[in-house]
Amino acid sequence: MFSKLDSVLQLVRQWQLSSPQDQGLYTPQWSGAECVVRVDNLSAHSISLGQIDLFDGQLPKGAKFHGEGFQMLAQNYGSADNITAIGRCPDAGEYRLSEDADHFTAYNQLLIESEGHYTLLGFSSSHRFSGYFKVYPSGRLVIGIDSDTLAIPARHYLVSESLFVACGESREAVLEQFAKAIEQHHPRLNWPSKPNGWCSWYHYYADVSAEDIEENLQQLISPHDHLDYLLIDDGYQEFMGDWLYPSDRFSGGVESLCKRIREQGKEPAIWVAPFIAQAESRLFQQHPDWFVKGQDGQPLAAEEVTYGGWRCTPWYVLDTTQEQVNQYLHQVFSHMYHHWGVKYFKLDAIYWGTLAKGYRADQNKTRIEAYRMGMEAINNACNGDAYILGCNAPMWPSLGLVHGMRIADDVERNIGRFKQIAKETFFRNWQDMRLWHNDPDCVTLNNIDNQQTNEAAYNWHRVSLLASSGLVFSGDRLIELDAAQAEVLNVLQKNQADAARFADFGLQHAKQYQDDLLIRQYWFNWDEHNSLEITLNVDAQWQVLWADSQFTSEFTANGLTICLAPNSAVVFEKKA
Fold first, then answer.
1. Cβ–Cβ < 8 Å for 292, 302
2. What is the b/e burial string over 100-118, where b = at least 16 CB atoms within 10 angstroms of the residue's CB?
3. What gap in Å lies between CA 370 and CA 377, rounded to an integer?
4. Under 8 Å CB-to-CB from 77, ≥6 apart: which residues?
5. Is the pLDDT confidence value at 305 over 60?
6. In the 8-state DSSP scheme, what is residue 354?
7. Can you tell me the distance from the alpha carbon of 563 to that of 553, in angstroms, rounded to the nearest whole number?
8. Are 358 and 292 in contact (CB under 8 A)?
9. What gap in Å lies between CA 47 and CA 170, rounded to an integer?
10. How confident is the model at residue 540 (pLDDT cuts 50, 70, 90)?
11. Mean pLDDT of 282-300
């Protein structure tokens, strides 16, 4: 059914919905494999349409698909009647972005596999709206945009985001076409190379101190001099929202610490959650009018309409349709950039900048536009010369606004989370170096008091990170790394290969290329209980780079037979 582009385009055109009676006119405008729909308000009064269904069709029987999420922690995979969440936080779960009583909602992209062919339906732009795909157990597929609370004035119109269609026998080729279409609408922010460094969060969490930063700075000078950035994560600030006011653990100030880092030949990096504030903050106390409002006209606590946040809640969300708010953001980031010397910003919790079900001062702006205005204010404050990493971000609304993007959950030292992060990352490997630099989160190789696992789990972690070719930031206390762990970190940091390419949704086997040459092959056993035996067609040029202690291999008449224990991974590297 989905095999040739012409037939797929013809089919999707047949899915176009008729205009609603007495309300509007829907006019599809196709250009090659892309379509926008003009929605005219023909009435004599303004109308708010909210979710606008534009296409209504049917998935092929037995089709499998991968659906993107609106925010970082959401992805899904399966069939129309059996859908599995890949991450911990589906959009329809704690985030409450959709009410999926009788259907499932994906956002941004739906990649469909049927009878060995792949069809991609994806929104190649996200300037004002988010695009959605509603999948029903029967296989019914509804495609549309969320126009938010936007009102279309009488005799006016809006234009949807661009829907892109592609198909082919190669999963990777179809995704590459999609990336090129996105590039036309949202050119990627370029950076000379992928940054690397050390991050304070995954050993110290919010209890980090200036002394902890100083200790790890000394380790970055030697022996880990190959790492460039020192990222001071959450915990340096007194309150969420008061980013220029340090906590008692940074009594000497953050500016002087950043100066010290630069003097030692390293680059300071800083964590900021720019769009949120807690009630105790100076920002909220002095400027409650700067925040998104609820129906009662008071600042809206995020937890009333979505996931409330992971600490120091309730969170309140800045209204970036207000000029004063964006001036404030410009002031904060300009100060950090010019006075602290920070040229790497990890922007966390930025999903909340798209807070739905609230009221902003400029009702002619959608929540996507509001978010993009805030992000542009931050970038402009740094003269466009600072590296911007998005984290806990709205995925497609961030296109063209970040250099790097966290694409997976927070790392924890256990096999369950390592596997979850690997799966989240592998489904998004295609985005690396096309939409942004992928960040699969930090490298953790050592146990801590409340997170302890085994050698096989850490092997899975290092193998999957190598396959991602993403940003490399150590999350361990550097002084505690032994020589073997330091060498793992070194190999990951020096990796210049493309992100590994998986042939299908099974994610069992991947190939990795560098300068168009195949240099590594990966095999993963996702089963929790059963070993996996495979006979490989590889010659003596290939050698094991990393495997766990349970891995076995034997040359037979048919080739090299390998055995992977449950929850096990191996990477083979071609000899130089």
1. no
2. eeebbbbbbbbbbbbeebb
3. 11
4. 64, 65, 66, 67, 83, 84, 86, 427, 505
5. yes
6. G
7. 6
8. yes
9. 43
10. confident
11. 97
DSSP 565: -
Structure tokens at 157: 């119109």
> Which DSSP category does 431 fall into?
G
Q: In which residue are the tokens 């991974």 written?
A: 569
Asked if 128 contacts 368 with a C-beta cutoff of 8 angstroms, the reply is: yes
Can you tell me the distance from the alpha carbon of 216 to that of 222, in angstroms, rounded to the nearest whole number?
Answer: 10
CA–CA separation, 409 and 411 (whole Å):
6
CA separation for the pair 576, 572 (Å, rounded): 12
Q: 89 burial class (0-12, 13-18, 19+ CB within 10 angstroms)?
A: middle
Residue 1 has pLDDT above 80, yes or no: no
Q: Which amino acid is at 359?
A: Y
Structure tokens at 570: 């191996």
Give the separation between CA 403 and CA 388, rounded to whole angstroms: 5
Of 56, 62, 46, nearest to 2 (Cα)?
Answer: 62
Mean pLDDT of 540-556: 95
Distance between first and last Cα of the chain: 45
Q: Which residue reads 């996931």 in tokens?
A: 307
Q: Which residues of 15-37 are buried (b: 16+ CB within 10 A; e: fewer)?
A: ebbeeeeeebebebeeeebbbbb
Find tokens 């205009």 and name the residue.
19
Q: Please tell me the distance from the alpha carbon of residue 131 to that of residue 124, in angstroms, as a whole number.
A: 9
Would you say 88 and 73 are in contact if contact means Cβ atoms under 8 Å apart? yes
* Residues 221-274: tens digit of each pLDDT: 999 999 999 999 999 999 999 999 999 999 999 999 999 999 999 999 999 999
Amino acid at 247: S
Furthest-apart CA atoms within the chain: distance in Å:
79
Q: Which of 77, 96, 87, 74 is nearest to 396 (CA)?
A: 74
Residues 30-46: tens digit of each pLDDT: 999 999 999 999 999 99
* Phi/psi at 119 (5° precision): -125, 130
Phi-psi region at 54: left, alpha or beta (left = phi > 0; alpha = psi -120 to 50): alpha
Q: What is the DSSP string of 294-325?
A: -TTSSBPBGGGTS---SSSPSEEEB-TTSHHH
Q: Which helix (H) or strand (E) holds 485?
A: helix 483-494
Q: For residues 405 and 389, is the Cβ–Cβ distance under 8 A?
A: yes
CA distance 300 to 275: 13
- What is the C-alpha to C-alpha distance for residues 434 and 189, in angstroms, rounded to an integer? 10
- The separation between CA 6 and the C-alpha centre of its own chain, rounded to angstroms, equals 32
Q: Coil, strand, or helix at residue 32? A: coil
Report the distance separating Cα 508 and Cα 524, nearest Å.
5
Helix (H) or strand (E) holding 520: strand 517-525
The residue to which tokens 């902003």 are assigned: 360
Torsion angle of C-alpha atoms 410, 415, 416, 422, degrees rounded to 10: 60
